[in-house]
Amino acid sequence: MSVSVIGRLKFRKRREKLFGDGRPRPMDRNAKARVMVYARALMRRTEAGKAYGPITAKALAVLEALLWGFHNARSGLCFPSYEKIAARAGCARSTVAEAIKALEDAGILSWVNRIKRVAEASVDLFERRIRKTRVIRTSNGYQFIDPQPPKRPESLEESSKSDFPSETPIQESFLPMPAHAPRTLDPDLPLDAALIRLGRAVGAAV
Fold this sequence. Notes:
It is a single chain. With 206 residues, the chain is α+β, with helices and mostly antiparallel strands. The protein has a domain at 16-144. Helix content is 35%, strand content 17%. It has 6 helices and 3 strands, in the order αβααααββα. A 3-stranded mixed beta sheet has the order 1-2-3, covered by helices on one side. A hairpin with a 5-residue loop joins strand 2 (109-123) and strand 3 (129-144). Helix 2 packs antiparallel against helix 3. The longest helix is centred in the last third of the chain and has 16 residues, at 190-205. The radius of gyration is 39 Å and the shape is elongated. The termini are far apart.
C-alpha cells in the first residue's frame, strides 16, 4: 500500500454518530427542485467512453426517492433504510449504497449514523438478573445541500438601493416658522414714538 493511500486512510474524517434524528434540514419544493436540476446536470458525460457523468441514472433515481419519497419538507427528517430506498427507486440494495456515495462525492447530500440505546435483560456471573444497555445502529440520517441558497447582502455596498429607505429614520425636519403680522406703532408710547421719529429721519435721509 502506498504512502498516499495510507495517509488518506489515516486522516479520513470518521463518520459522525448521533442519537435520535441526526441533523434534519427543512427544504421547500423549490429547494428540492434545485437539487434535482443540479443532479441532472451532473449526469452529462464528461469523459470519453462513459455513458454518464458523476451521477448515473440509478443515482438520480435514489436521490429522487429520498427527496420526494422520504424527506419531510417541514421537519427535515429523512432516515429510510436501504431496503425502503431500493424498493422505491427500483434497484438493488447494493446500488443504493453506491448511489449514496456518488451523491455525497458530488456534494449533493451528506449523512450521519443514527444510533439508539436498547435495554436488554441479562444474567451476570452470579446468575443475577441485570439490565444492560446496548447501542445499535438504526439507519442513516440524510441531509441535502441546496446548490443555490437564498442570498443575503453581506454589506451595504452589495445591497440594492431599494433594500434601504432613502430617508434617515432619525432625521429631524425643521420647518420655517410662520411670519408674524406687522404691529401698528402707537405714537403715545415713548418707544413707539422714537421708532416713528427714526423711521421718518431715515426716510428723509434717503
